[in-house]
Queue: 2 jobs
Job 1
Amino acid sequence: MYRDDGEGALSGRAVVVQPIDLDVMVSGKGGPPIRGLRAGIAPAAKSMLLRLGGYAAFRHLVPSRGVAILRYHAVCGAEGAAYCDPGICISPDSFEAHVRYLAANYAVLPLPEVVARLRASRPLPPNAVAITFDDGYVDNLAAARTLSRHGLTATFFITAGCVGGGEPFWLAELRTLLSAIREPAVHLSADGAPLTIELGTLEKSRKAVRALTTVIKAHPIAVRESLRDQLRQAARNPTTPRCILNWDELAEMQRLGMTIGAHTLTHPNLPKALVADAYREIKESRQCLEHELGVPVTLFAYPNGGAERYMTPAIAGMVRDAGYEGAATSRNAFAGSGSDLFALERIQVRERLEDLIFALEVERLVLKPTPRPGELD
Ligand SMILES: [Zn+2]
């Protein structure tokens, strides 16, 4: 975690960046009980449980009463490393396996229907699942086609300001810019504090991406924009390849029955943004998507993964005021009748089908809905 309160943090010599647990940051891994559960069951045992129908038997005997709102990002091969962290990418083959299994074994509902049922206190079917995607990566169109082939739909939360050649998606642009800088280090200023980022090796570049991501998320939007300008200059203004869907692709996804939700305009850390900026990001992303796609946009997902510090009761209030009917967090748990509609829990997906189903059938015993967003820090 980036520190701003101690010796060495953002110092003139070199930024001191504590190792960031990317697993936790991007995979939404749960706390100690989940880690204990995962560590306690060998991968081979999970595969065996899946093959022998152990999960299916358990699902039948002890059906889930909550809903697992799955949280995907990218569905891609190695090419995805150019625009997203490999930790949030599921391979197309695994995704196909997920979808086939989910279609055959779960009650997969559109998220708007889940929200409508929760709002009206109507029961969910046993073993309910809803599928969501964050960010709007260009590979999501192929994922939508896969879902459609298996008769399923999903909700795609789109970074609206980055659609159709808008703003480059900053998390992807960071990768382009850092890989284009040829010097062994780049000297930046973050909110007036000098910041030196070392480059030159693959490992240093990876660390640089993580470090800058953390610094950007810890500051208001203006600091992100300033850092972006400095990096563009240092990298001699390379073009960031398009990584977010365009309007035609989104329209095709709608024709396939997919739901489009909003994920802000530019993917800021909302609690760190100025209040006016946060509200604009929340409200105008909805207006923009509705204007371009011609359908109501009723659902929102808070940007930034893993920790719960990316939404607060004040931000949830803005989402409600902007006219949304529900909002999804990155809190790793099942949602259900006790959930706040503006703080819906989600399950972070994992590459292997057996790990995903382990989460749905075993971790659900501890991943209970949490009633109020007021507990979030
Ligand atoms: Zn996101």
Job 2
Amino acid sequence: MSLAFISHHECQNHRMGAHHPETPERLHAIKDRLIASGMEMLVTHYDAPLATFEQLTRVHDPSYVRMIEKAAPKGEDELVWIDGDTAMCKGTLPAALRSAGAAVLAVDLVLGDKHHAAFCCVRPPGHHAERARAMGFCFFNNIAVGAAHALDAHGLKRVAILDFDVHHGNGTEDIFKGDERVLFCSSFQHPFYPGTGADCDAANVINLPLPKLTGGKELRTAVEERWLPRIDAFAPQLIMISAGFDGHLEDDMAQFNLRESDYAWVTRQARELAVKHAQERIVSCLEGGYELSALGRCVSTHVDELIGHG
Ligand SMILES: [Zn+2]
């Protein structure tokens, strides 16, 4: 089975100003790299649907979803700042709904045995969005909307979420901490934005706060010791990945020193666990990654590992 590659052209209509790092060019860079590498031919393309109010409110407060729906400006060049670094333009709401809808479609395709794995090439990202709060470039928590769909609409009992973005997935933790159906694993630079994650005592959350200058060796050791045995014991029926590549050596959003081979390694670990426990089922959603060339290379490597090699 091929890999489902889910995106939508409306994800490129969300803009937060000329100097904002979370740009539409990120998706162009990924797609260019996939074409150049020949990987474009190996995936099946899908357009992301709009997430519904019902799907969003499995993880977000209804009043928060309505607030975001109403906040969008009407003017072409108008920006409404929802948080210090997170703004809405005219095109933001459709993009955010497509991003969350991509995760829902990905879950439907993978659980419907159409594909063993899916990658959601979407923006805005989602893992900082809490139950009732937009922040850190995120409006709706795409991975959480997808996980809740797998649990509530498909009846799964155990979903593991791996988040290797360089920032703590505070939104996903906020939504799922204490929910024993979800095992949430987040690795991140600490201390660093958003400042959370070092003191969570929920049994279903495994945070890996790591110091700046963390490289592949340190990350792999931490993942081998802290994540893999717990995920293995949890025996997830579906593995989801919050795939942020802003910990790359060349990405100056943070101070990790990860390389493509490290993202390949962690993706391979996830795939091996999915083969063992989850009928190979993996859904990955793009989160951060702001150095365009490195982002393209990292996603290409990540998708290659998701496709699997026997
Ligand atoms: Zn990030």
